[in-house]
Amino acid sequence: MNNDNPVRNTKVMNRFDLTSRLIAKLKNEEAVIGGIGNTNFDLWAAGHRPQNFYMLGSMGLAFPIALGVALAQPERRVFALEGDGSLLMQLGSLTTIATLAPKNLTMVVMDNGIYQITGAQPTPAASVADLVAIAVASGLTNSSWAADEEDFERLIEESMSATGPALIGVRIDDKPGVGTTRRDPVQIRERFMHGMGVREPL
Asked: pLDDT digits over 156-166, tens only?
């Protein structure tokens, strides 16, 4: 049995710091889809903008929603931020994304090995599941773990000119989210549609 698991050889980083680094690189009204809980709390705190969509209540939908946006607006770069527990609820989305292969989609998996919002129960990613290896086996060949913050920024920059979907895995600590998303689904939807240029502002 091979115990040289690449996820265990990466630095444990901070979700808010990584999200802030991503937001700092956005220059062309790129869409950013945040998964539920701390993932979108940190997205809100890192740089609230009309092009951000904050998923509320349903685990695992950040990647499918981002896929829809990427297909609908192929000239717009789309980023999706998702936790390991949420991705495990929706693994089938990886094969769908690999099949449709949007060139403008970058997915970031924030892996702390726990279902943090519901009580810090361990996820399979904590012990037996390598989410990047699962992505590669699903057909997302441009998938890799970020070794540290500098490597994360490099992978983000590379993904911006990629010719197919990219997935970046990052190991993160268990610090709580920095902000709190305003829980108004209609407002989130309308603001995002305005940010995507398909709806006039309220």
From this structure: 999 999 999 99
